Amino acid sequence: MVKTISTVNLYDAHNHLHDEWLLPHLDRVAADLAGIGIAGAVVNGSSPDDWPQVSALASRFSWVIPSYGVHPWDCGNRPSDWLGRLESRLATEPRAHVGEIGLDRWMLERAAPNDPRLTGLRRAPLNEQIEVFSAQLALVAADNRVASIHCTDAWGALFDILRAAQLPARGFLLHAYAGPSEMIKLFADLGAYFSFNGSYLISKRENQRHAFKNVPADRLLIETDAPATPLPPSHERFHLPPSPTGGRLNHPANLAAIYTGLAQFLGLRDDQLAPQVEENFRRLFL
Ligand SMILES: [Zn+2]
CATH number, domain at 118? Predict the structure, then answer.
């Protein structure tokens, strides 16, 4: 019998299920996720303020894998004791990973001064971001945890840091990989996995989509980044009301539609792609 997408296990390599904009809808979202066959989701905190919410979700749902980190957007406003707090949280949570961490040059050079997503944030210069990122990388390497890495417009700097750093033996995730195709092999040789984001199904994001043709099959993962980065409306199967600031929110159960969209793009059947992603996800995160 040919399996359909609803009878396979699905895995979200990167989301923010604890986000305050999802909170009012959480019961419905969880039911919808059960309906699509969610079997694992890495939920990423981005500053010490939201780590307790991530931890609470991991206690409530067995399929939530908690990940804690200081995101480059939150780097400039981090509290002085952030590293000690991260170390003590990791010490009590052996299943936890580290993320979302990374480098963001877009915020410094291309983001509008009044971008609502960055309101109230001090935009840490790249040197400061590198210092905070490197401290977190050292923790993941020491404990062999997974680092979930965010990078915009800083691929060369990221590669130089990773090449010189001690890295976890199990590998690391480049979430929503949007770097050059030619760098995929270089990163893969260092242990990278690459997660395909649903926004890459938007027709004009052709470069990001096409790069995934070069990702080795055993390093491919899929992510929603929900409630961020919505799919094109034509692919969306689950809907949420707009955010308080009027933006579109991405329902985490659109994960299934991303599997379908990527399978079509790669010329695979859903029942070929899903077992490969399952194997990759379990090898990296579990
Ligand atoms: Zn994210």
Answer: 3.20.20.140
Domain extent for 267: 8-285
3, part of any domain: no
Answer yes or no: is 86 within a domain.
yes
Query: Distance (Å, rounded) from C-alpha 30 to C-alpha 36?
Result: 10
In a domain, 2, yes or no: no
Pairing of strands 97-104, 10-15: unpaired
Distance between CA atoms of 89 and 45, rounded to whole angstroms?
Answer: 12
Q: How far is the CA of 273 from the centre of ligand 1 (A)?
A: 23
Q: Has this prediction a pTM greater than 0.90?
A: yes
User: What is the tens place of the pLDDT at every residue in 198-221?
Assistant: 999 999 999 999 999 999 999 999
How remote is the CA of residue 227 from the centroid of ligand 1, in Å? Answer: 9
CA of 103 to the centre of ligand 1 (A): 12
Domain count for the chain, please give it: 1
3-state SS, residue 174? strand
Task: Average the pLDDT over 140-163 and give the result.
Answer: 97
Q: Is residue 151 part of a domain?
A: yes
Centre of ligand 1 to C-alpha 100, Å, is 6
**What pLDDT is attached to residue 244?**
85
**What angle (nearest 5°) sits at the alpha carbon of residue 257, between those of residues 252 and 259?**
100
What percent of the chain stands above pLDDT 70?
98
Ligand 1 centroid distance, CA of 3 (Å): 30
